[in-house]
Amino acid sequence: GENKLIGDLLVLGGATLYGISNVCEEYIVRNLSRVEFLGMIGLFGSFFSGIQLAIMEHKELLKVPWDWQIGLLYVGFSACMFGLYSFMPVVIKKTSATAVNLSLLTADLYSLFCGLFLFHYKFSGLYLLSFFTILVGLVLYSSTSTYVAQDPRVYKQFRNPSGPVVDLPATSQLEPSVTYTSLGQETEEEPHVRVA
């Protein structure tokens, strides 16, 4: 339309909020419960999507010529979204929210292929350039391991055996904790602190 700037800003805002949502999802899935996450996103997602549908799309929904084929398309779309949101927490727990979002960017190319074969779209070579740029970013991101806060009683690879370790008293609950360590040269005055 004529308001391209507003459209671009809305797309950027939506993408930003989606990224924040996935980072929060990673935190919940790693530290709390995947089942609780799926239950809450289903409950609140249905509620807010229903309100959005009632406000923004109610006129278009009434214009739909309902028959069994359109109903089947809606059921298929719902099944795909159910599968996506059911498996996404599993993938996020095994990789990260960043890797999942980078992988989802490749979906645009698959939709382009469907458009080429089904609807005979014309496309720009920039699609292929963007696809390979995304793949390079995904490979570069996945090739280097990142530091993850873990329970120091299980993961002791970050301990520096040359310095003294100060143990703090452990609580009765087993909760995720952080091992603090320095990757550079350390002085004698800086003892290592291990939080349990």
TrEMBL record:
<feature type="transmembrane region" description="Helical">
    <location>
        <begin position="68"/>
        <end position="87"/>
    </location>
</feature>
<dbReference type="GO" id="GO:0016020">
    <property type="term" value="C:membrane"/>
</dbReference>
<feature type="transmembrane region" description="Helical">
    <location>
        <begin position="127"/>
        <end position="149"/>
    </location>
</feature>
<dbReference type="InterPro" id="IPR009262">
    <property type="entry name" value="SLC35_F1/F2/F6"/>
</dbReference>
<keyword id="KW-1133">Transmembrane helix</keyword>
<dbReference type="Pfam" id="PF06027">
    <property type="entry name" value="SLC35F"/>
</dbReference>
<keyword id="KW-0813">Transport</keyword>
<comment type="similarity">
    <text>Belongs to the SLC35F solute transporter family.</text>
</comment>
<dbReference type="GO" id="GO:0022857">
    <property type="term" value="F:transmembrane transporter activity"/>
</dbReference>
<keyword id="KW-0812">Transmembrane</keyword>
<protein>
    <submittedName>
        <fullName>Solute carrier family 35 member F1</fullName>
    </submittedName>
</protein>
<comment type="function">
    <text>Putative solute transporter.</text>
</comment>
<dbReference type="InterPro" id="IPR052221">
    <property type="entry name" value="SLC35F_Transporter"/>
</dbReference>
<feature type="transmembrane region" description="Helical">
    <location>
        <begin position="99"/>
        <end position="121"/>
    </location>
</feature>
<feature type="transmembrane region" description="Helical">
    <location>
        <begin position="37"/>
        <end position="56"/>
    </location>
</feature>
<keyword id="KW-0472">Membrane</keyword>
